[in-house]
Every structure is written in C-alpha cells, then in structure tokens.
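new request in #modeling-help
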Amino acid sequence: MLDGKPAEHIPILKMGEFLLVSIQVEMHDRLVMTLQDELTEHIVRHRARGVLIDISALEIVDSFIGRALGNIANMARVLDAATVVVGMRPAVAITLVELGVNLSGVRTALNAEKGMDLIRRELGLSGRRDAGGA
Amino acid sequence: MADHRSRLAAIVREHEPHIVADWLGLLAKVTRRDAVDRNDVEEHARSFVPLLADAMAADSSGDIDGPAWSKVREMLTSLSAGRARQGWSPSETATFVFSFKQPLFTRLCEAYRTDPDGLARETWTATLLLDKLGLLTTEVSQKSREDIIIRQQRELLELSTPVVTLWEGILGVPLIGTLDSERTQVVMESLLQRIVDSGAAIAIIDITGVPTVDTLVAQHLLKTVSAARLMGAECIISGIRPQIAQTIVHLGVDLGNVATKATLADALVLALSRVGSAVTKAAPRA
C-alpha cells in the first residue's frame, strides 16, 4: 500500500473483509483517478466484500469529481463488493443534484455507522439492528 | 433665463401663506380621507412649500437630481413611502404634488399680468419641475409596494416549508403552494439539514397542498428526492390526487423508482415498515 511514492493519495484501510476509504483532503482530478486505480486494485487483491467510502470531510465537488466518485462506487460493485458512500454534506448533495450527478446505482448512508450496517445487511451478515429487512 | 426662474422662487416665498391656503383647500377636495389623514396632509403641505422655494432659489436648472433638491426629494420619498404603506394609491400620492400647480399658477398669473411671454416661460418651468416631482412620488410608492410584496413573499416562503418529525427516523415535508425553484432550494436545504440533525432514514414529501404538478415541479421534486438519497435517506412522495396522477402520466413525467402513495397515512405505514416499526391496535381495555 505504501510504496514510498511522494505523490499524494487517499489511504485505503483494510478491516477484515472490508475496505475503508476516508477522503479527508480536497479532491482534485488526479487524486480521484489515483483513488480509482488503487481501490479497484485493492478490492481484487484483498478480495474485499464491502467498501465504505466516507466523504464527510469533502466540502467542494465539481461534476468531474462527483461523477468519478459514482464511477468508483460502481466499479467496486462490479468487482462484487457491496459499496456505500457515506457522510455527504447537504451542500455537496445539493451541488451534485444541480450538476445533474445523481450517483444512480450507488448506495448511500448518512454516516459511517449506518453505512456499515447497510453493507452487513447486504452481505447477509448480522447487522447491529435486526429491524428493517433489505 | 436664470432670473426668470429665480423669480419663481421669490413668488412662492412672497405668497407662501396664500399658496398654502389655496393648496390645502384644493387638497381637501381631491383627497377623500378622514381627519387624521387631513392633518397629515396639512403638515406635509406646510413643510413642502418652503423646501420647494429654497430648492428653486438654490438650483434653477430644472434638474431635481441636484444636491440643492435633496431635501425636497427626501421629504417626498418619506411621504410617498409612508402613504404606500397606508394603502394610498400612487395616483393619490402624485395628486398631492400635481394639485400644487393650480395655486402656483394663480399667483404666477397675478405676477406676470403684463408679461405674457414671461408667464408662459415660468408656467412651463414650473410644470416641468412639478411633473418631475410627481413622477418621483409615483416611483417611490411603486418601489415601496414592491418592497412590501417581496417581504411578504419571503415570509410566505418561511411559513410554508416546515420539516416535521413524524416518527423516530421518519421526517415529513408537507408542501403547500406552488413549488418553484426558489422554494425547492429552501425545502431541500431544510430537509437535508434535518436529515443530518436527526439521522432520519426516510422522508415523506406530501404534495397534497401543491395545486398543480407540471414537468418543472416534478423535476424539482425529483431533485429533492435525489439530494436526500445522496445523504442516505429514502424519500416517499405522498398526497397524489387523482388529477395530479393523470397530469403526471399525460406529461410523461418519469418519477423513476420513487415510492409514491396516495395518502400520507399510506406513506407513513410504508415508512414504518422500512424502519422496522409497526403500529398495531391496542387491545380494548376491559
């Protein structure tokens, strides 16, 4: 994961069969492409079953980054990992909708905890809440 | 030319009490108002004439935008704004200024009895001036009314977009009135903020109070639904009346995979089942 490259990248944390991506810096076009490469690679390498992308610290998005995030989530799904994007800020949500980026096909949740519940339920693992079948 | 105009000021000053008296008599005839208003009018008239004379003496160019006319403008602006709030029509307010012509012209006639050319010139100058002042009052009344309308619109906007908690994890958004882009923005912002604050998983948007749904309104609704979904909350649209359902289909509006229900009650039942709660009838008490 850390091959000593000076180029900045988003850390991808492996937790059991899940991968955790938390975007804590301003996104720019190259960074999002790097994330796309690295995440798909990680999913295959670790045979991850769930991916959680936390964007709660993301304040500014443009259409490219919005679309790229959607693409990343869809790619993860294609690789058979239940993927959920969590923690989107209201302002970001409004911006994306106004830009026409609906992230259709991407699962979303309010925060990391609910996102994790969603992944567990989707994988048929026991969620913390038994209520609310998928 | 300049000396003619300065005579206008002199004439007004010289005959001020008469002019005011004539004017008030005229105003009493043209304004059909009660005693309180009449006192106001009288006060305004008395303060207007000296201001006008001063301004005419200081700046005879006929341009009322100059600094010499600032006091007259100020006075007329506050007068017009006040009257607009009290519900006077713009023409009633403008009549206040226009009716000043008659007493003024009477005095001009007396002063220029032997000089018809001078009379014509002075009359023309005075007409131009008073017309401009009259237009100023109309403009200000119009502006004040628009301000009132804008303020009321804003109040209406705040009144009509509440987000209520229906159940734990279920929000309700009862929409009343037409859904334009500005209101959509307000609804969206308050809904998303409430989702963050309460951690709600489901929002029911009730459109019983939306009179018509056209493609634009539908688009606004879908935007709100999409934004809520991006935040991880699911939306249910309820309160779809038969005519609205017909319109939606005839217009070819695609509500996508948004759950829709005819009544808020149905939507609530669906929302409860989604969050894993249920409402049952309590056993009758003995």
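bot summary: Residues 1-5, 129-134 of chain A have pLDDT under 50 and may be disordered.
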